[in-house]
Structure formats: structure tokens, C-alpha cells
Structure prediction request, 357 residues.
Amino acid sequence: MHQLMVFCRAGFEGECGRELTDAAAWRGIFGFFRPGKEPGTVRFTLSGKDKPADLMNTLALGDLVFARDWFEILAEFELPASDRVGAVQAVLRELEAALPACQRVEVRIPAGNTDRDLGNFARKWVAPLSRALRDAGTLSQGAGPDVYQLEIFLSDFTAAVVGVSRADNRSPFPGGIPRLKLSGQSPSRSALKLDEAWKVFVAPDRATELLGGGKKAVDLGAAPGGWTSQLVRHGMLVTAIDNGPMNAELMATGHVEHIEADGFRWRPRRAVDWMVCDIVDQPRKTAAMVAEWFAKKLCRYSIFNLKLPMKKRYEEWLECRGLIEERLTQAGIGYRLVARHLYHDREEITCFIERLD
Ligand SMILES: C[S@@+](CC[C@H](N)C(=O)[O-])C[C@H]1O[C@@H](n2cnc3c(N)ncnc32)[C@H](O)[C@@H]1O
Prediction:
């Protein structure tokens, strides 16, 4: 049985599974999902002759909204109370033919794990486990192509899943969660979300092109200024739209103009580089407003939130995506739209759109 282990935010297993099932079917690969027994995990089973590698060759993790990370499952086994390294080695010996050359091992635990002992164990286990697997020749010795990573997922102290992930199609962040630090001067914790969005959506080799060089930005729903502070941190000149008050220290930088206005109606006189929007409102209203900005070429890049309704979260995202597609196709605008349920998101997803012409 060919299976994938997929990670998402706890409570979004249904959306994650349905999106993956649809995305695979679009590529002619069929399967079904069930939520894993650990919250925040989904098992996707391929029903035909296709293997996980066939799916991962045509579907990038970055094309999915609700999946944070994934790997191909090779085996599941019981962990004994002692010599757990030996137990892993025994399973890997049996898998030898199916196991590609791996450079490293990652030990994962369920996202909402509350057992501190399990967390500590997983962290401290990586070094002795890696050493033993390297000595046994299971992990490659020294430098080599960093293509495959051995994955061990510990449900608890008694059960484990072993698998492999590929460097070119997994999250660059451990567990799919970038570790970010809030600057002491940040006016709000929301700043972390824009920081995470840039880490996820802006490839390092495009960071200067997209974020450097003193760009002009508009922040809709800006107060108290967490997102604005991130834009300013990158040397941008920001127009902050919000009826609420902006953080005084941020205003003192001289990089921010505060306009008290309705973010859905306000438009710049001249086009800007960035428009970001953190207004919590109906997702279709936000999607229509973003589509309008792009149809009129008022900005080149945008990051915005869509607050999804509890009952139809996946459907609402499809509606919003369709609405933007229809409007921009009508206007003859080339664009790239991606979305992700970020670690700092709750009921909302974060979207990135850029104009391509
Ligand atoms: C989640 S907060 C934004 C937090 C901000 N991004 C930060 O990092 O500090 C949402 C903001 O949207 C503003 N807002 C709500 N509706 C708005 C509208 N129609 N036009 C402009 N701002 C609006 C609210 O006043 C609130 O300050």
C-alpha cells in the first residue's frame, strides 16, 4: 500500500485531505485520505498503480494550501522501551531495497504534542540515531547530493512511522514551521505573519528583487503597525490605511504616511510595488478588491489574508481563487497566485499574488 504522511494545522485535516485528493486527481493520480490519529496529520493512500514518487514528481508541496509538509511512508513499527535505535535499524534493514541513499534523518512528533518527555527525547535522539545509521551505512557518509532525508515520526513512545522526503519537494523548514523571532520594537505579533509569508512565498534568490531597493507599499488595515513595521524594516515607504491609531514609534521613522480611510475603497494615485491587506472581512470581498488592484495594475505584489468560514473553508478558497482568475483573465493580466495556511494563521489563509507582465 502506497501512502503519504501529510502535516497540516490541527483541525484542518479534512481540508488538507480533500485538497490533496483533488490535486492528485487533476494529475490523473487517484487516492483517498483519512485523518491520522494524531491531530494535524493526514494519511493519503494511492489507490492505483501509482507510487508516491509519481505524485511528488508532478505536484509540488508549494501548490497546496493546507499541507505544511509531507513524506512518503515506508513502514510503521512498534517502538520497544529499550534499544529504540536497534529497532529502527532492524526495520531499515528489511526496507533496504526500497530505501534511497539518505543524507540525514529527521525525527518528528505530532504538532500538538503536550508530552514534554517525547519532545525532549525526539530532539536528543537525532544525534545517536544518525551516528548509528551512519556507522551501519544506512545514512550516507560525508558530503554527497542532499536529495533524500530519512523521516521518523513518533506518534508517542511506542509507535513510529518511517519514510523518506525529497529536498526538492518538502518544506525547507523543520516540520513545515519556520522559527521566527518577534522584534522587541514590533507594534504587534501580527508582524510574525508577514515575516513568515515572505519566508514561504519569496524564494531567497528573489528576496532583493521583491523586497529590496526602497519600494513603495500600501498596508490596508495597518493598525497598530505590525505589518507596516516589516515593510519599513525592508526600507519601504508605506502608506498605512486604517481608521485605528498607528504605533507612535513607527510613525516617528518618517517612512509611514497614515491615512484614515476605508481600505476597500481607497486607491493610490500612482501604482506602488506592494499592497498588503490584513483586514478581517468576507473573503470574497477581499479577493474582489485584490483582483481590482491587479486588473488596474495598481501594484505588482500583494500578500493578503482570506478569513475562511468554519464550514466551507476549502470551497471558499476555491471560490476566491476562481473570482481572481476570472477578473484577471478578463483584464488580460498574467499573474501567479499561491496560498498557504501558515503556522501563524488560524482560521485564515495567507495568499501571495504577483503580476507577471
Ligand atoms: C488584524 S488587524 C491588523 C493588524 C496589523 N496588520 C498589524 O500587523 O498590526 C485588522 C485591522 O483592520 C482594520 N480595518 C477593519 N476594516 C477596515 C477597513 N474597511 N478599512 C481599513 N481598515 C480596516 C482594523 O481597524 C484593524 O486595525
